[in-house]
Amino acid sequence: MYDFRIAADDKRELYRQLIQAADALTDGEPDAVANMANISALLWESLPDLNWAGFYRNGGDELVLGPFQGRAACIRIPFGKGVCGAAAASQEPQCVEDVHAFPGHITCDSASRSELVVPIVHQGELIAVLDLDSPSLARFDAEDVAGCLELAQTLAPRLTLGRKSPGRELKKS
Ligand code: SME
């Protein structure tokens, strides 16, 4: 059983604990989808005031929904569209105080009011984006951007989709 108790009033300390827990949780595990699933669960449990936390993967010419926590979400997002597509196309974090004021914002949950999306880049290639949504206006600040970027950079090698999953050999009948 995993029982990470992550709690701190100070955001920097919160992200320090979060990154340490995510590192421990993904250590030695080569399956990128399993790692994304556990990291989204960890973020969901540890960060207050979220209504969605998860990943969109680089599907070539668009983003494709990955592991997440929250309500069912749109599956494919073209690069350049919405907050996620803007983060993917620019490879820059997008911290949006009010999603209603963001041109082209894609509404997956009408409760969302602010959003933070950070690109996950490994060896110069976009692997995925990490997307956090909140029902509160201006929920995310520079410390959230820095914390999520550090998380993305630290864990990028374990989230690379090209990595082989340790599947079982199928026997031919
Ligand atoms: N709002 C995002 C779409 C993804 S959902 O928030 C989960 C966007 O504009 O890209």
What's the arrangement of secondary structure elements?
Blueprint (H helix, E strand, L loop, with lengths): L10 H16 L5 H15 L5 E7 L3 E9 L5 E3 L3 H9 L3 E3 L17 E9 L2 E10 L7 H14 L18
Antiparallel strand pairs: 1-2, 1-6, 2-3, 4-5, 5-6
Helix pairs in contact: 1-2, 1-4
The site of methionine sulfoxide has 15 residues, from helix 3 and strand 6.
Description of the structure:
With 173 residues, the protein is of the alpha+beta class. The chain has a single domain, classed as 2-Layer Sandwich (Beta-Lactamase). Helix 1 runs antiparallel to helix 2. The longest helix has 16 residues. The model has no long low-confidence stretch (mean pLDDT 92). The site of methionine sulfoxide has 15 residues, from helix 3 and strand 6.
Strand content: 15-25%
What does the largest sheet look like? 6 strands, antiparallel
What does the oligomeric state look like here?
Answer: single chain
Shape: globular
CATH T-level fold name = Beta-Lactamase
Strand tally is 6
> Structural class, please?
alpha+beta
- Count the domains: 1
Could you say which small molecules are bound to this protein? methionine sulfoxide
CATH H-level name... which superfamily?
Answer: GAF domain
Any idea what the CATH architecture is? 2-Layer Sandwich
Query: Unreliable segments (pLDDT under 50, ≥5 consecutive)?
Result: none
Helix content: 25-40%
**N to C succession of SSEs:** HHEEEHEEEH
